[in-house]
């Protein structure tokens, strides 16, 4: 019995020590989304193509692919068949992870580029379905 208790305590302490490391920083003030005409991508910035969700009889499928694209993206560019007509950037006020993957970088931005402002605003439906093809660019440094 004592061995089981020691094993449970050791396992609990081991799991608790597997955090993100370092003290958690306080959230930054939130900022409004901004529409930009171009972005310079940092070396650690990822450019991801997100395809429109396709509905099949028993499942849905969305193509998501990392791209080795240009280091600058501007309105008017054509990337992966998308003529960029609008770019919206959202500020990350904190770090956040989901499923072991980081999706928010405190003090940086994530940007969505699509054919038009209307397509960007309506690209993701209420159930998470992708209504249009778009590019997701993250993390981005902006002033």
Question: What does this molecule look like?
Answer:
The chain is built from 2 helices and 14 strands. The strands form 5 sheets. It has a 6-stranded antiparallel sheet with strand order 1-10-13-14-3-6. The chain has a two-stranded antiparallel ribbon with strand order 2-7. Strands 4-5 form a two-stranded antiparallel sheet. The protein has one domain (28-140). A hairpin with a 2-residue loop joins strand 11 (96-98) and strand 12 (101-104). 14% of the residues lie in helices and 36% in strands. The chain has helices at 2-16, 117-121; strands spanning 34-36, 38-40, 46-50, 54-55, 60-61, 64-67, 72-74, 78-79, 82-83, 86-91, 96-98, 101-104, 109-114, 134-140. It is mainly beta and 143 residues long.
């Amino acid at each position: 019995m004592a061995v089981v208790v020691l094993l449970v305590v050791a396992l609990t302490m081991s799991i608790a020590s597997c955090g993100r490391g370092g003290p958690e920083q306080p959230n930054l003030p939130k900022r409004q989304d901004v529409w930009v005409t171009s972005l310079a991508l940092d070396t650690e910035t990822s450019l991801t193509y997100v395809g429109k969700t396709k509905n099949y009889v028993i499942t849905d499928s969305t193509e998501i692919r990392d791209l080795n694209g240009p280091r600058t993206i501007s309105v008017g560019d054509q990337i992966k068949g998308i003529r960029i007509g609008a770019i919206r950037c959202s500020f990350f006020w904190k770090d956040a992870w989901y499923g072991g993957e980081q999706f928010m970088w405190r003090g940086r931005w994530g940007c969505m580029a699509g054919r038009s402002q209307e397509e960007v605003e309506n690209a993701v439906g209420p159930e998470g379905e992708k209504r249009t093809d778009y590019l997701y660019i993250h993390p981005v440094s902006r002033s």
